[in-house]
Every structure is written in structure tokens, then in C-alpha cells.
């Protein structure tokens, strides 16, 4: 962020918590994040001051850029807000106790802290879940209503209709029933689809047939006309959707991946599309992003490419989530739920 002037700093005191914002984004976006976060912290501190019994020292939090911290200040930082943070900057904060992510995916942070006991609070934001559910519904409807086939017919100048399958007869499988997957599954149920979901451990969800474990994964795949991937990327999920998994899907099934690219094995997916076992794939995430210009996905007739836009972080909402979590911690020592480093989520 060398193009930005130093932020004005308040007179720090022993009761001031310095909270750096670490992100590998351009200067303009960095500045917008700082503005949103400062507004959110001011609002949260004011809300807490109105509702609390006046006593003790008021909470003071100063949001700063990492680059503006002195070496002494870096040594004392206990909490940080991060969005695709540089591992070298994280390593320069030796007293760090926990970080609040502004992203739902935290696999890079898990890797960065494998040798350190630092808590990772992933972003749990209703706005993010709403956006993800909307995207999952949109792409499921796109596949359900045969849009790829009709688009191909348009390009070929073909006027032909095809039998419509009722939504209740279309079986949708959701891989991953965390906060995002659960909201997506409920939204699909509301649209009338026959929905099932899979998770590592047993879960119960009204209106959704649920599966878990290895046996449950096989059962889910075998009844998924549309398979939606909403899993975190972990050591256990990397490459989970491979040739064997794709072969278990019903004939002419389709795939939607709005999670992380490495969960789906690219070569296996292309092979399944090329030999006709899979009808279509909607991909919003990839092994390498941006997707390289020469990648076969760009021109493959069985692939719809989206530039990782299924659930963009809403800055005002995410800033409020971060501010509330950090102000609560500063007041009471209570941290939000953090990622289990063994599972990666």
C-alpha cells in the first residue's frame, strides 16, 4: 500500500487496542475497506456505550494499516482483520492471538498458522449466505431449465423445444452443509426441488434428506441430477470430486462449483464432459485465478465460466461483523468461534 499516505493517528494509550487491517488488494479498495471498518467500529462502540452500565475505562480501538505500525507496535498486536493477508505480514505479528477474516474461505490462513497457535474466525455473515444461496438457485435453475442446450440451439439457429422436468422431480445434491450450504439447501427446497445434502458429520435439516461420511457421500452422488459444491477447501476435500465421484452421478447430471477450484479435479471433469457422462458444469472457482486465457474451460461447450462472483463479500455488512466481534473481545475477552486447525474449518 505504498501509494497511500499514512493515516492520521490518535494519541494512543495503554487502553487503546491497535487493530491492523492486512489485505493484498489495490490501494483504492484498501482505502474503501478502511473507511467501512472505521464506520463500523465507531457505530459498534457507540452502541455498546449506550447499552452498557458506565464503569471502568472506555474501550478504545484504533484501526490501522499494517504498513503504518512501528516495530514496537507490531510486537504488541493481539488481533488483526485480514483479507488475503500476506503471510510475511502475519509472521511479523508475533503476539497475534486471533484474526477476523473478511472472507468465508480461510484455507490460506490455516496454512499460514500451521506452526502457530492463532485462532481464525471466518466470516459468518447473513449477507454472504444470502448471496451464495441466490447464486446456487440461479445456476440450478439455469441447468434445470436446459439453458445451456437452448443457448447452443440459438447459436446454431435451431428452433426446438424440450420436455420440462418438474422441479420436484429434479434431485439436487448439496456438498457441504455449513452456514452457506445450509442456506443454499433451504433456498432450493423453497423453489420446489428435491434436495439432499452431505456433510462430514451427521446433520438434520428440515425438508432436506441428509447424508454424512463416506457411505453417505456415495449415496448423495448417486441421487444428484445437479451436484452443488459448497465445501471449504481442506486436506480432506481437495480433489474430492474426482473421476470416481463423477462416475457415481446419474446419466446427464450437471455440476455447480461455487466453493473452491481444487475440490474438483480439472482433468477428470473435462474427461466426464468430453465422453458425455456429465451434461454441463457451471464453475465460479478455479485452481488458478484469474482463469488462464488458454485454459480449455473458456471454449468448452459443456462449461459455463464465472469469475468468482457467486458470493462477494459485502463490505458494510462484513465490517459490522468484524467490529462487533473485536469490540466484544476487547470488552470481555470473548472470541468468536474459530476454525479447528485439524479439520480446516
Give a concise summary.
The chain has 345 residues and is of the alpha/beta class. Helices cover 37% and strands 17% of the residues. The strands form two sheets. A seven-stranded parallel beta sheet has the order 8-7-6-9-10-11-12. The protein has a five-stranded parallel beta sheet with strand order 2-1-3-4-5, with helices on one face.
Name the descriptors.
345 residues; alpha/beta; Rossmann fold; 2 domains; 7-stranded parallel beta sheet; 5-stranded parallel beta sheet; 11 helices; 17% strand; elongated
Give the secondary structure arrangement, pairings included.
Elements: E1 16-23, H1 27-51, E2 60-65, H2 71-76, E3 79-83, H3 87-91, E4 98-101, H4 107-112, E5 119-121, H5 126-144, H6 147-156, E6 171-175, H7 179-190, E7 194-199, E8 209-212, H8 213-222, E9 226-229, H9 243-248, E10 253-257, H10 266-274, E11 278-283, E12 303-305, H11 315-332
Parallel strand pairs: 1-2, 1-3, 3-4, 4-5, 6-7, 6-9, 7-8, 9-10, 10-11, 11-12
Helix pairs in contact: 1-11, 5-7
Amino acid at each position: 500500500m505504498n501509494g497511500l499516505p499514512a493515516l492520521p493517528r490518535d494519541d494512543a494509550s495503554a487502553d487503546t487496542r491497535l487493530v491492523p487491517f492486512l489485505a493484498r488488494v489495490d490501494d483504492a479498495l484498501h482505502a474503501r475497506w478502511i473507511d467501512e471498518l472505521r464506520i463500523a467500529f465507531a457505530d459498534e462502540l457507540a452502541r455498546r456505550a449506550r447499552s452498557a452500565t458506565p464503569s471502568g475505562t472506555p474501550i478504545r480501538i484504533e484501526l490501522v494499516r499494517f504498513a503504518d505500525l512501528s516495530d514496537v507496535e507490531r510486537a504488541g498486536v493481539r488481533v488483526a482483520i485480514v483479507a488475503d493477508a500476506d503471510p510475511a505480514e502475519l509472521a511479523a505479528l508475533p503476539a497475534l492471538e486471533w484474526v477476523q477474516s473478511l472472507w468465508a474461505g480461510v484455507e490460506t490462513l490455516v496454512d499460514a498458522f500451521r506452526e502457530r497457535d492463532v485462532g481464525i474466525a471466518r466470516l459468518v455473515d447473513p449477507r454472504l449466505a444470502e448471496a451464495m444461496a441466490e447464486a446456487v438457485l440461479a445456476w440450478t435453475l439455469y441447468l434445470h431449465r436446459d439453458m445451456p442446450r437452448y443457448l447452443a440451439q440459438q447459436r446454431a439457429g435451431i428452433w426446438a423445444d424440450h420436455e420440462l422436468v418438474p422441479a420436484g422431480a429434479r434431485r439436487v445434491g448439496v456438498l457441504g452443509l455449513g452456514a452457506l450450504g445450509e442456506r443454499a439447501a433451504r433456498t432450493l427446497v423453497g423453489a420446489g426441488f428435491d434436495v439432499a445434502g452431505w456433510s462430514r458429520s451427521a446433520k438434520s435439516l428440515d425438508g432436506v434428506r441428509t447424508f454424512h461420511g463416506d457411505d453417505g457421500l456415495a449415496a448423495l452422488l448417486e441421487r444428484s441430477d445437479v451436484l452443488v459444491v459448497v465445501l471449504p477447501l481442506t486436506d480432506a476435500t481437495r480433489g474430492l470430486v474426482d473421476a470416481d465421484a463423477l462416475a457415481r452421478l446419474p446419466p446427464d447430471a450437471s455440476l455447480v462449483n461455487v466453493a473452491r477450484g481444487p475440490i474438483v479435479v480439472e482433468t477428470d471433469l473435462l474427461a466426464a464432459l468430453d465422453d458425455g457422462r456429465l451434461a454441463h458444469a457451471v464453475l465460479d472457482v478455479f485452481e488458478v485465478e484469474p482463469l488462464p486465457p488458454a485454459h480449455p474451460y473458456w471454449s468448452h461447450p459443456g462449461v459455463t465460466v464465472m469469475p468468482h462472483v457467486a458470493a462477494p463479500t459485502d463490505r458494510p455488512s462484513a465490517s459490522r461483523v468484524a467490529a462487533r466481534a473485536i469490540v466484544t473481545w476487547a470488552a470481555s475477552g470473548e472470541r468468536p468461534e474459530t476454525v479447528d486447525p485439524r479439520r480446516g474449518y
